[in-house]
Design goal:
Elements: H1 3-20, H2 22-37, H3 41-47, H4 53-59, H5 65-76
Length: 109
C-alpha cells in the first residue's frame, strides 16, 4: 500500500467515525461550549449559572446578528469579550450573512 493510500484510508476512517457518531459528538460539543461559557453575561441572563440541555433548549433563544449586536457593540467600544465568550475574541469583522431563514424559528420548529 502506498503512503498516500494510508493517508486517504485514515482520512476516510476519521470521516466514518465522525458521521457514525454525529449526534453524540454534537451533544458533547454543545455541553463543552455551554459549560465553558455558562458564566458569561449573555448566557447567565437565561440560565442563571445552571445548565442542563432541557433548560438550555427552553430558555436560550435562537437569534440572528441583531440579537447579539448590543454585545458586539459593547465589545467594539472596549468592553471585554467575556460578556459573550469565555475565549477572547481576537478580531471583529463586519460581514452580512443572510439570516432570514432563522428569523421566527425556534428549536422546536
Amino acid at each position: 500500500m502506498a503512503p498516500n493510500d494510508r493517508i486517504v484510508e485514515k482520512g476516510w476512517k476519521i470521516i466514518e467515525d465522525l458521521t457514525r457518531n454525529a449526534h453524540q459528538i454534537q451533544q458533547q460539543l454543545l455541553d463543552e461550549i455551554i459549560t465553558k461559557n455558562l458564566h458569561t453575561e449573555y448566557l447567565d441572563k437565561f440560565l442563571h449559572g445552571n445548565y442542563d440541555k432541557k433548560l438550555f433548549k427552553k430558555k436560550v433563544p435562537i437569534i440572528n446578528y441583531e440579537g447579539i449586536k448590543p454585545y458586539m457593540d459593547r465589545i467594539a467600544n472596549g468592553e471585554s469579550s467575556d460578556i459573550i465568550s469565555a475565549e477572547p475574541l481576537l478580531e471583529l469583522t463586519l460581514r452580512h450573512y443572510n439570516s432570514i431563514w432563522f428569523e421566527g424559528k425556534t428549536k422546536s420548529n
